[in-house]
Specification:
The chain is mainly beta. The chain is built from one helix and 33 strands. The strands form ten sheets. It has a four-stranded antiparallel β-sheet, with no helix packed on it. It has a four-stranded antiparallel β-sheet with strand order 2-3-4-5, with no helix packed on it. The chain has a four-stranded antiparallel β-sheet with strand order 7-8-11-12, with no helix packed on it. It starts with a helix and ends with a strand.
Amino acid sequence: MRALYDTMNRDSTRNGSNRRWAAHALATLGLALTAQIACNSDSNNGPTMGPAPPPGGSGPWEVLASMSNARTENSAAALGGQVYAAGGFAPDRTPASSVERYDPATDRWTTVAELPASVNHAGMAAIDRLLYVVGGYSGTSFNPVNVVQIYDPAADAWSVGTPMPGSRGALAVAVRNGKIHAIGGVNAAGETVGTHELYDPVANSWETLAPLPTVREHIAAAAIGNNIYVAAGRFGGQNRTTFEIYDAISDQWSTGPPVPTARSGVAAAALDNKFYLFGGEDLQSTNTFNANERFDPATNRWEQLDSMPTSRHGLGAAVVGNSIYVVGGGPQAGLSFSRANERFTP
């Protein structure tokens, strides 16, 4: 089964959504026994894996109130001092259209209006008073979509923006200068791509920019100053340590020092002019990571920080104040789920 799964995963970037779905389904079957064993020992894995631990903790990491719904391959962003978690897969492996909002002041989650189109592996960003969910895979089909979904918290309502020029899932997004960079992922033909497109919310339009030099999916990105940093990910089922930097002024890419730990299905955030990279998975070994690594552009160096309390992939990260909230994601590679909500304060 392991050999068959590896072959299917390598072929997935060439043979389209049917092969991708088969690979994920087989991964789920192969991991079923692991998940059943883990449910009695890992208290952070959500309703299908056991109850979440009570809020608390010490040091740079704190375990906070769990999400109402367990999910994986979800998106996250912060707006108005609140953390939002959207979409992904639910524990019954159906699409999750639910959206939740976390208030750090009260340590409570609230359910808000659902996504108009359920997506997983999507990008999520906040600009001014609105949230944007960009692209992703549709439902359980692993078919990339080009939809742009826009949430207005004041009205608790969703609308749609101009679609991306092409459909993409497992992409990364980053906000700079009030615009959204949508980078990499898998296109409608099942190809891993370096496509780089810029969305202007004011003009409600897209333009094409210099492509990501090293094509990858399941990547993460964040903006610092005039640069967009894109880290890790995978191609053909193989994890990468690739770290590339986009200069928005010159519309050119450069290569940064490799990520210390090769992984995919990661989340990223920028805080105090530093780039943070969390979690991830390795489909070859079926491992997940609790890695927490930081890149400092001032020194051009990576460092390893205190590990996440819960090892997981397919998670989201969002910054509120001087802390990073890391929510959702799966404790086992493939389709596994959690209600995790953990806060890192450097």
